[in-house]
Design goal:
With 447 residues, this protein is mostly helical. It contains 17 helices and four strands. Helix 7 runs antiparallel to helix 8 (219-236). The two termini are 17 Å apart. Residues 423-447 are annotated as: Disordered. InterPro entries: Na/H_antiporter_dom_sf (IPR023171), NhaA (IPR004670). Keywords: Antiport, Cell membrane, Ion transport, Membrane, Sodium, Sodium transport, Transmembrane, Transmembrane helix, Transport.
């Protein structure tokens, strides 16, 4: 059935250019997710082995100049320094999506933005309800984040034929999620603010912005300015990862008219994203996971004891239940009160599978847990257990749902991959989703 005039299809097929770019991004993130899984497993095994003391000694080793207040532990360097690279890439991706990607159309942007907001508000409310009247309310933001690398690693293990539109939705939701998470960190988890240092950070940030706006790509100019910005933001009391997002937002997405304009090829944002995404996915996030995930569980009794803490229970409830209710609920509201409707080949079980993947909250959840309760504290260990249990349960449930949908996904993929001619672009992208001759699967309602 064709959509009514003026309506927007939810999860509809985007442009071929954007679909190709997203596919390349997802391949890199999937590899990064597998490295993230490896780092997590090694950390957990080491922290629960007879050599756990060596792991803690390595994590707590201090390096850096004390005169600049940068004699930080390796774990802190991973959380404050390496994750700044992660948020820089996320900021570039988000800006590109809304300036030059398919989401520059507000009708396409409203759904992932609404889903991301719903997927943060509901988990936070559930966590707060579980911890009402206790001393754990400070961690309300822990279950609000989605880890795209981990989620895509789960998809890689499932080997699902998930439609590209849903993958794009998951990626966009996670990127918007990251931006909202860094805003929460900056606003709610800044214990003290040194306005002078923050104002000083605007100087190298402004110079960096001036140079990139003039399309300067020389690393020996840009890198020192980025490091200075990071140092000053760190000294200001605001979490240093905020510097990564601020730097990313200064980078132009579209080529200047002198360089040929938008049709002349990728802009500087895409160039920098291409350069730094392998560092983010392959080094920054896995190393952070290695230092953050090493919690001594203490066997089954220790696991039960940790889950007896309302903080851990709130995190599990937020990730497993809150994410699904928030993402699916926000999507339902968009389709209920706007002219948006599902693309013909998709249905609500597909969205539930995506929402369950949204409950895989790892990197940013662990970071917020450390900020809320302090690195190495007993409550921080309970946070790690809650995040790990919530993530594993969400991943397992997502695997079950998506496996059940795998046959339908495969049929949809086979129908959409036909008719690729000499130009290398599947004709389905050239005809559009409602054009005559576009392959259609059987209606969703027939099972």
């Amino acid at each position: 059935m064709n959509a009514p005039h003026g309506s927007t299809r939810v999860f509809a097929r985007g442009s071929w250019t954007e679909a190709s770019r997203i596919a390349a991004v997802l391949r890199r993130e999937t590899v990064g997710g597998l490295l993230l899984l490896a780092g997590t497993v090694v950390a957990l095994a080491w922290a629960n082995s007879p050599w756990s003391g060596a792991y803690e000694a390595l994590r707590d080793t201090r390096v850096g100049p004390a005169s600049l207040h940068l004699d930080l532990t390796l774990g802190t360097w991973a959380a404050d320094g390496l994750l700044a690279v992660f948020f820089f890439v996320a900021g570039l991706e988000l800006k590109r999506e809304f300036v030059a990607g398919d989401l520059r159309d507000p009708r396409r942007a409203v759904l992932p933005v609404a889903a991301a907001v719903g997927g943060m508000v509901v988990p936070a409310v559930l966590y707060a309800l579980v911890n009402l009247g206790g001393d754990g309310l400070r961690g309300w933001a822990i279950p609000t984040a989605t880890d795209i690398a981990f989620a895509l690693a789960v998809l890689a293990v499932i080997s699902t034929h998930l439609p590209s539109a849903l993958r794009t939705f998951l990626l966009t939701l996670a990127v918007v999620d990251d931006l909202l998470a860094i805003t929460i960190i900056a606003v709610f988890y800044t214990s003290s603010l040194a306005a002078g240092w923050l104002a000083l950070a605007l100087v190298p940030l402004a110079v960096f912005g001036f140079l990139v706006q003039r399309r300067v790509r020389s690393w020996w100019l840009l890198l020192p300015l980025a490091v200075l910005t990071w140092v000053f933001v760190h000294e200001s009391g605001v979490h240093a990862t905020v510097a990564g997002v601020l730097l990313a937002f200064t980078v132009p997405v579209v080529r200047s008219e002198a360089a040929g304009g938008p049709d002349a090829g990728p802009g500087l944002a895409e160039h920098l994203e291409h350069r730094f995404r392998p560092i983010s996915a392959g080094i920054a996030v896995p190393v952070f996971a290695f230092f953050a995930a090493g919690v001594t569980v203490g066997g089954l009794s220790g696991l039960v004891e940790s889950l007896g803490d309302r903080v851990a229970l709130g995190i599990v409830a937020g990730l497993v239940v809150g994410k699904v209710v928030g993402i699916v609920g926000a999507t339902w509201l968009v389709t209920r009160f706007t002219r948006a409707e599902f693309a013909d080949e998709l249905g609500w079980p597909d969205l539930v599978g995506m929402a369950l993947l949204g409950g895989i909250g790892f990197t940013v959840s662990l970071l917020i847990g450390e900020l809320a309760f302090g690195t190495g504290s007993e409550r921080d260990d309970h946070v790690k257990v809650g995040v790990l249990v919530g993530t594993v349960v969400s991943a397992l449930l997502a695997a079950v749902v998506l496996r059940l949908r795998n046959r339908r996904y495969r049929r949809i993929e086979e129908l959409e991959s036909v008719d690729e001619d000499a130009d290398g672009i599947p004709d389905v992208y050239q005809r559009g989703p409602d054009a005559p001759g576009t392959p259609r699967p059987r209606p969703f309602t027939d099972g």
